[in-house]
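Q: Here's a chain of 517 amino acids. Please give me its 3D structure as tokens.
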Amino acid sequence: MPSNYKDSIFKNPDKNFNLIKHNSFKFKLLMITSCRFSRLISYNMGAFRFFLLIGLFLISSFTFAQTNRSSVLAPPLVIPDTNKKITVGAKDTNINHTNLFFTLRQCIDYALLHQPALNRSLIGQDITKETNAVNLAAWLPQVNASGNLTHYIQVPANTVVATGGGTATTTGRGVIANSFVPELAVSQAIFSPTLLYTHRTAPLLVEASKEVTDSTKIFLVSSITKSFYSVLLTLEQINIFKEDTTRLGKNVRDTYHQYIGGIVDETDYEEAVITLNNSKAQLKQANENVTPQFAALKQLMGYTPELPQFNVSFDTTQMMQAIHIDTAQQLRYENRIEFKQLNTQKILQNELIHYYNFQWVPTVSAFFNYDLTFQNNNYGNLLSSSYPTSLIGLSFSVPIFTGFARLHNVQKAKLQAKLLDWDETDLKTLINTQYTTALANYKGNFYNLQLLQKNVSLAERTYWVVTLQYKSGVVAYLNVITAESNLISSEISYLNALFQVLSNKIDLEKAMGSITY
């Protein structure tokens, strides 16, 4: 007996006394009627036979009506098989028959080693270092070797002027037919504005390449985390739909047997089958959706299709603890990687302005040349004798007038610096917008999550109560369908809100520049 019925008895004794009194009156009236009827039968056996025939006729008519109802509303010949359960198998998702499990941290660590975009940025960082080494190599001594090998096919004539005013010509006098002159040239840059600019910007270029790598890492961490949560959300939805399909399958079986027994109408059974088919369709769609989501996660990780399949592993308690974040901390622009990259560009631009301002400074270098000359008319004896020469000196170059090119370069570099200042202003407003949006989404969805968690508990209790009421014949099956729909909607909405809060937390951490990797 339900507790509320007992409470009503003890709380309203007068009302229940009247109820008992009223029932006693009905009982007395029934007894008096029975006595009178028995007397009438005893006094008139003919009337008794008449009433007996009427009763048998009514019973046979009722039985015939039941037989006709069963023949008209006969159930389908094939009893529905509701014991089948749609599972997430290797045929559907290619994720089940494997012992390989990846947590979120392991997915991120794998991506930091194998992701193509990240490896390209790391290679770009090495290329920047090598480029700086090439540009700075001009500070070291430059040594070159060269030589000329000469053979006169026709020896030039020498003209000699005589004392009497006439001329006398002697062919080949004082000219060597074969010569070989090797030369060793050494130069050393002492001062150069271009080399000084290269030296000052080299570490800045390396820092800029590192910031590109850091930006790629931040993108990977946030994207992999969201993709990981998306896979988990779909897997949890699959579990909910599997439980719903099992629960609805039981309802179909119970409704079917109740329909056979004439307890419920045919429409209740048909509505139960419709609801079960809808749940199966949702389960199948979720099974299909998880496959491309796994493919997207593998792409972000750099996990090639040839590698074995893996499952995702997560700790529910740790996930619930990871939802919380300190929303009272202040936004600091300098923590954002985009702000750091912009500051590096501004420093590089200032170095460029400094370079153009001092481009008039002369370029100074030292040099040393050593020549070893070989000459002989006989080619076979060319290397038998040599005549060495050597020299040392300084060279410099001063740009006196370049058509005002240096001044225009200075003005152009200053204008580019102003562009970077406006880029900084625009970036600050963008970061502030991203931060306020992520914070508002996080707070709103977190509050929504708390309410939806309560809705799940209420929906479970409501469905349990309505199911009992339907089995007791108190409510129609439409109430069961409504309660079932509310339960599924509450569970799916709660899961969506949970993973939405986790995604909002990632967006908030990214907006604040606090993502670690």
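Q: Can you summarize the key feature?
A: The CA atoms of residues 215 and 337 lie 6 Å apart.
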